[in-house]
């Protein structure tokens, strides 16, 4: 029984030591980087294929050069009061609550995958026009993007 207690307390001590190590390295990180702790988001490559019905998809890439992750939680736009974010699984799309934007990573919304969904369009934008949208995040402030409308079959991945 004694031996068992010893083994157990050794394990607890080890776990505690590991936890301490984790803590102190996080602390030194914080000390080293000052104000650049939060997510730092940048949007690129946005486009909307010209809608053929009264719905449209939106695609873009959000790059996070910051040290903490963020989440895309919602999108708003003048052209629709019903804008949601969708993932595509087994060729079927379904609404999600949020998309992760990892620290030092990116979130890609692209054809055949994750996308922004605009339903019941108030007007149908034409190729060459721009659609104003606003991206909302869990931590970062909102980002406004002027999304260019491209040809209905536009796909930057197909060269
Ligand atoms: Cu969709």
How would you summarize the topology of this molecule?
Layout: H1 2-33, E1 41-49, E2 56-64, E3 70-77, E4 82-89, E5 92-95, E6 99-101, E7 105-109, E8 115-119, E9 130-137, E10 143-150
Parallel strand pairs: 1-10
Antiparallel strand pairs: 1-2, 2-7, 2-8, 3-6, 3-9, 4-5, 4-8, 9-10
Bound molecules: copper (II) ion.
Could you give a short description of this structure?
The protein has one helix at about 1-35; strands spanning about 40-50, 55-65, 70-75, 80-90, 90-95, 100, 105-110, 115-120, 130-135, 145-150. It is of the alpha+beta class and about 160 residues long. Copper (II) ion binds near residues 93, 115 and 117.
Descriptive account of the structure:
With 159 residues, the chain is an alpha+beta fold. 20% of the residues lie in helices and 42% in strands. The protein is built from 1 helix and 10 strands; from the N terminus they run αββββββββββ. Strands 1, 2, 3, 4, 5, 6, 7, 8, 9 and 10 form a 10-stranded mixed sheet that branches. Strand 4 and strand 5 form a beta hairpin. The site of copper (II) ion has 4 residues, from strand 8. The site of copper (II) ion (CU) has 4 residues, from strand 8.
Descriptive labels:
159 residues; alpha+beta; 1 helix; 20% helix; 42% strand; elongated; binds copper (II) ion
- The percent range for strand residues is 35-45%
Low-confidence stretches: 20-34
As a whole number of angstroms, the C-alpha radius of gyration is 22 Å
**Oligomer description:** single chain
Count of strand segments: 10
Bound molecules: copper (II) ion
> What spatial form do the alpha-carbon principal axes imply?
elongated
Q: Which series of helices and strands comes N to C?
A: HEEEEEEEEEE
């Amino acid at each position: 029984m004694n031996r068992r207690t010893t083994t157990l307390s050794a394990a607890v001590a080890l776990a505690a030591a590991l936890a301490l190590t984790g803590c102190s390295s996080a602390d030194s990180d914080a000390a080293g980087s000052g104000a650049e702790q939060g997510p730092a988001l940048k949007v690129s490559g946005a486009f909307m294929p010209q809608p053929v019905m009264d719905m449209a998809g939106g695609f873009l890439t959000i790059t996070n050069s910051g040290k903490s992750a963020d989440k895309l939680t919602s999108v708003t736009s003048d052209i629709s009061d019903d804008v949601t974010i969708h993932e595509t699984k087994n060729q079927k799309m379904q609404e999600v609550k949020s998309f992760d934007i990892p620290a030092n990573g990116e979130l890609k919304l692209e054809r055949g995958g994750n996308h922004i969904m605009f339903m019941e369009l108030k007007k149908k934008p034409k190729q060459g026009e721009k659609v104003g949208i606003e991206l909302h995040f869990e931590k970062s402030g909102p980002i406004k993007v002027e999304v260019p409308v491209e040809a209905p079959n536009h796909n930057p991945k197909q060269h």
